[in-house]
Amino acid sequence: MTMLSTIRLRAAALLAGFALVLTGCFMSPGKFTSELVLTGPDSFIFSYEGEIFFLGLSKLAQMEAAGEAFAPSCFDEETYESRDCTPEEEAEQRAEWEAGAAERAASAKKQAEQMAALMGGIDPFDPKAADELVKLLSRQKGWERVVHKGDGVFDVSYRVTGTMGHDFTFPMIEGFPPTNPFVQVFLRKGGQVRINAPGFAAQNSETGVLGTMLGAGSFATMAAMGMASEAQDGDQAAEAIPGIPALDGTFTMRTTGAMRVLANNTDEGPAAETTGEALTWRISPRTAQPPTALIATGG
Questions:
Q1: Cis omega before residue 171 (within 30°)?
Q2: 93 φ, ψ (degrees, to nearest 5)
Q3: How many C-beta neighbours within 10 Å does residue 182 have?
Q4: In this structure, are residues 74 and 84 in contact, taking their beta carbons and an 8 Å threshold?
Q5: What is the pLDDT of residues 38-95, one digit of tens each?
Q6: Are 170 and 156 in contact (CB under 8 A)?
Q7: Contact in structure between 167 and 189 (CB atoms under 8 Å)
């Protein structure tokens, strides 16, 4: 794969990522440690320590919404390799670009309004947007620490104790659409609990990386696309797309008492502990399947 192809692939990833913002998939884990403990047939403790990336508050999304500066682009008709444009070609392209200025401005305004609607009314272009999000999360139960590290990346500590009288999803943010879950707990009849973690995966073995991007995958998928493209070029130290934190974490699910693990997709299966069993998933940009497990609680 040529350098030009790599650049185009990365550009496509960025554009697809911004499209995901406007469809609700706008949050992704970065470096994290998360744990779900089923403390009884009808109780649990959930924690998440680490980074959460909000694409709408990043420079990446704001640059895309504002529109790119004019840059002429020409290629050889036989080899399809990039080449310098002639003065005539550049002038023609510039005229077309300037003719679309009004349309781009209208589109940017619409995108900004859509992002604000998705973020509980927070205007992502407001310099105080990150502070507003910190305040919003801090007043919700469970968010014990919320610190903006810059460029849409927040360092958080979340911990909640709850009962198993209803399903559970993390994160749930006031005013935000519930379209980007990291972890889900579903109660089934007969004393069973289904645990899914769709946000803790970047790839999908059936549809590939692009399929995950168009579905429920996280923005770590975009980093995975950049890594894949560079790996094909022989670069062993492939880098993620700048501005998007790499998916790097551990998710652990623990049972207590007589609970039984009926099904799971870990590499090693349940490990015995003094109080029950533990399932552990190590998550990276190459994680192919979201963690999932089925537990018999005995309740």
A1: yes
A2: -65, -40
A3: 23
A4: yes
A5: 999 889 999 999 999 988 788 766 665 555 678 888 988 888 888 999 999 999 999 9
A6: no
A7: no
| Two tokens, residue 221 | 């998928």
Can you give the pLDDT at residue 212? 38
CA 259/CA 273 separation, integer angstroms: 12
Length of the chain (residues):
299
Residue with tokens 């320590």: 49
Kindly tell me the sign of the dihedral angle through the C-alpha atoms of 82, 86, 88, 94.
Answer: positive
Q: What is the pLDDT of residues 138-165, one digit of tens each?
A: 999 999 999 999 989 999 999 999 988 8
CA dist., res. 64 & res. 152, Å (int): 15
pTM higher than the cut 0.90: no
Q: Which residues contact 114 (CB under 8 A, 6 or more apart)?
A: 22
CB 167 within 8 A of CB 194: no
Query: Identity (one letter) of the amino acid at 223?
Result: A
Of the spans 57-66, 107-116, 277-286, which averages the highest pLDDT? 277-286
Write the DSSP string, the chain.
--HHHHHHHHHHHHHHHHHHHTTT--EEEEEEEEEEEEEETTEEEEEEEEEEEEGGGSHHHHHHHH-PPP---EE-TTT--EEPPPHHHHHHHHHHHHHTHHHHHHHHHHHHHHHHHHTTT--TTSTTHHHHHHHHHHTSTTEEEEEEEETTEEEEEEEEEEETTS-EEE---TTS-S---SEEEEEETTTEEEEE-TTS-S--TTTHHHHHHHTT--THHHHHHHHHHHHHTT-SS--PPTTSPPPEEEEEEE--TT-EEEEE--SS--EE-SSSEEEEEEE-TT--S--EEEEE---
Tokens representing residue 153 in the block: 């990346």
Site of tokens 């990150």: 130
